[in-house]
Every structure is written in C-alpha cells, then in structure tokens.
Specification:
six-stranded antiparallel beta barrel; Pnp Oxidase, Chain A; alpha+beta; globular; 38% strand
Amino acid sequence: MDLRDVENLAARDHHLAVVATTRADGTIQASVVNAGILAHPVSGREVAAFVTYGRTKLANLRARPKATVVWRAGWEWGAVEGRCEIAGPDDPLAGVDPAALPELIRSIFRAAGGEHDDWDTFDRVMAEERRAAVLVEPERVYSNRP
C-alpha cells in the first residue's frame, strides 16, 4: 500500500480516521478525525494531515511527535505512521508564514473531503479555536491488504 492507495481508501468513508498518539505514561490516546493526504507546505513531500484543537492530542504530539493515522472502509484499512510536525497559532513551523496558516488548514480540510460555503467564517472559527495543522511524515504505510 502507498499513499495513493490510502487516499483512495480514505475517500470511501468520508476520510474518517483514528489518530493514535502516546501519553506521557506510555499508554495510547486515540481519537477520530477527518484526515487526508497532501503535499507538505515546506518540503512538498506527500504527508498524512489533519487539523486539531484537542489539548490532549496536541500536548502528546508536542512532547512525543509521532502518530499513527488509520483509515478504514468496510473491512479494509490502511495506516500511516511517522514523525509529526505541527503548524498552528501556538506552534510556528519553520518555513510556514503564519499568514499562510488559514490556507494550510483549508487545504487539509479539502484533502480530508471537506467543502465549505463560507471560507471567511471557517477561517475565523479555526483561528478562534486555535486549531493547528498536524503533518505526519510517512515512515511506514501498511494495511490489511494481501
């Protein structure tokens, strides 16, 4: 499985994915997000990406910047795991102009199958909620496909 296969799988079920991060005590914290595949805003390499405002998830990723993202459709699933970078109002990312953050968040939203009728309102809400982009550099891509 490669990232194109993951993208095709994700599109079959609304780009819903489980994201797993590691807590300080070594246990796993998991949550459901919409996630997609897109070009990294600095390197241009394809990455898995999602947007979050969750204090727990962001705290885990700041301290231990690795995650696994798993999409499923029916009984088929695909995973991307790797090192994470965060770009957000509280997490500046080298090479990403803070003024470009709204467009990065929009790009991730669209890559995760989202559409919006009022991008100005979308941008305002994302900023008010201090949402951050999480970019997962694929170190492993795998699935249950034979």
